[in-house]
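Reopening this one. Same input as before:
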Amino acid sequence: MKAAVFHGPDVGIKLEEVPTPKPKRGQILVRVAGCGVCHTDLHYVDHGTPTFKPPPLTLGHEIAGTVEKVGKRVEGFEAGDRVLLAAVQSCGHCDACRVGRENVCSASVMLGNNVDGGFAEYVVAPAKDAYSLPSSIPLVEGAIIADAVTTPYHAVVIRARVQPGDWVVVVGCGGVGLNVVQIAAALGARVIAVDLIDSKLEWAMKLGAVATVNSSRVERLDKEVRRLTDGQGAHVGFEVVGKPATQEQALSCLRTGGRLVMVGYSPDVMSLNAGRVMFRELEVVGSLGCRPVDYPRVIELVRQGRVKIEELVTHRFPLEEIEAAFETVRSGQAIRAVVTP
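Same output, byte for byte:
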């Protein structure tokens, strides 16, 4: 089969012929219809972020396709079934898994990181981590549900506990941030979207934001957010950029008793006024991935049309043009790009 194999940041990605994997017991072999290009992939390629499995490795963790073969002791799937694969597979028996927090499983396995991923014609995965996709959801666009939609769902519903009527500020309106916007809006929140690029703010309005702020055009973001929220500030803030400066900005936008949810990844240290956090009883929480139990709920939201995906996939590339796909995401031209092996 053809696969786009990552050989490390010094060499990059090469299109190669590699053996087609065979499903072992409990696994399925999936013919990949679409695999989303995520900024996590760019971290490996551009910034030297190490993968758990040393290169050579096939990247890609947002995968949808059709079942080609099933391994022994697989029930519920057969050849031809349309499936979405969870980006991260949990062990099911560690302490985190036992208390329903499988998304922070101590023995988690991530496609395109711990094992070969979806920038290939075929990929194997445990059947327990596959979810049926209804025929009304297109496979190519449906691939982004695996991370770009489920990760925001977990952040908004589980970690932020957003309620109808809440004022919510979302700092960063890339692919993940825009889905934070539309999921929070779907829950009945009043969403203020923040970014530096007007076109992304226009998308945020289409997806349910009630107001937008181009942060390059205001002296202080927190003052602008308070002006929009009757002087109080946001009940919940989401930071979806991954920079100390924007993390601090998002925190400053909160009202007393507010909650900051950190979705963007950053290895750098942010400054935090602990006295302010204490005196105003603020919460600062992290959010990682999504629990397996919530994947069917997200798929159903997409099926009902309450969460949009087709409009967000603005670029599609064949496997042979994966370098162009990465450059499109790198340049900020795409809301979401999908490779179609």
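So the earlier flakiness isn't reproducible anymore. For the record, The domain at 2-147+290-340 is CATH 3.90.180.10 (Quinone Oxidoreductase; Chain A, domain 1).
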